[in-house]
Amino acid sequence: MRRPAWSLGDFRLHKKLYKGTHTSIYQATCLHSGLPVALKVYFLARMPDNIVHMLKREIEIHAQLVHKHVAQLYAAFLDSEQRVMLVQEYAARGDLLGLLQRLGGRMQPDQVGDLVVRPFLDALSHLHSKGICHRDIKPENILFTQNWRLLLADFGVSINLHQERAVTRAGTEGYMAPEVERCPLKADPQDNKDNRELAYSTAVDIWAVGVLAYELMVGFPPVVAPAPAAGSTAGFVRSEMTAAALHFPASVPPLARAFITAALAPDPADRPTAAALLQHPWLQEAAVRVAQQAAKRAEAEAAVARQTRQLLQQATSVPQPLPGTAGLSTGDNVSATRFAVRSVSAS
């Protein structure tokens, strides 16, 4: 994929995957390498200055993230029509939201723990180790490749806490931690940057992990409220949402409940880190059970394969001659068979 210059002509566009106010995403193929990619196209003419600032930050952050569970950014370039192109790893299986809908809106706890939360936390731990806060964790931003490798994507509102203070109300309603909800919207990127009381940390991503795990197992987020009216705070995740206020159906096992409760601690300082959550007993137990189930499936498939081979061997084996017909030709053997049948019938 490396080359001195890039252009839209390097790619064959197949279909539009998404269209937003300032951006569109296309499935495409690189004509030089044959690699399938996702082209994220920003239209600079439609973007206000604060969004351009976020785009620059997105590219800077994404470019430094190289991890098996982070969608790879291959390149970013500006074309002659003032379009910024981000060439990214393509996820053929789509996003987690689509998968969840195909599964009827819920997943089994072991599936959630081992197939989603564990690899996702692996990616999140990598981000946090670099001081990067994602700020928009939700099913739509978790993707899967053709072989079901999980990818964390969309760093459009991410921020590097080593370089600047996070003081903006950013993310998606329902997944924002209480300390994010209280922050005001901004007209200029530098608004409120000197206000330490508004600053929050990577713990906001941990809150979103708790919301995500709950939603995947239960079928809806832990707090469901209508969209707020203009200028109203109704519908926000409120500080009253404590561990005691959480309600779990019987299908959520105790260890999963403990995981979610820890992630949704009202005080950010009480939430575990992503690295600590990776060692949680729920994930360890889920990994063991998923591995056992996979071993049983493999054993059953091997047994079916053995039976199939035996049947094929029997079907293709050379038939043994009838007693007393050894040395006869095929025609003689057939005649002898008919004679034997007539002899049995006559008797």
Automatic annotation (TrEMBL):
Residues at the active site: 136
Origin organism lineage: Eukaryota, Viridiplantae, Chlorophyta, core chlorophytes, Chlorophyceae
Native source organism of the sequence: Edaphochlamys debaryana
Top-level taxonomic group: Eukaryota
GO molecular function: ATP binding; protein serine/threonine kinase activity
Segments forming a coiled coil: 283-315
Alphabetized InterPro entries for the sequence: Aur-like, Kinase-like_dom_sf, Prot_kinase_dom, Ser/Thr_kinase_AS
Domain spans labelled Protein kinase: 11-283
Keyword Mitochondrion: no
Pfam families with a match to the protein in the record: Pkinase
Crosslink (Glycyl lysine isopeptide (Lys-Gly) (interchain with G-Cter in SUMO2)) position: 138
Keywords: ATP-binding, Coiled coil, Kinase, Nucleotide-binding, Serine/threonine-protein kinase, Transferase
Designated name of the protein: Protein kinase domain-containing protein
Keyword Coiled coil: yes
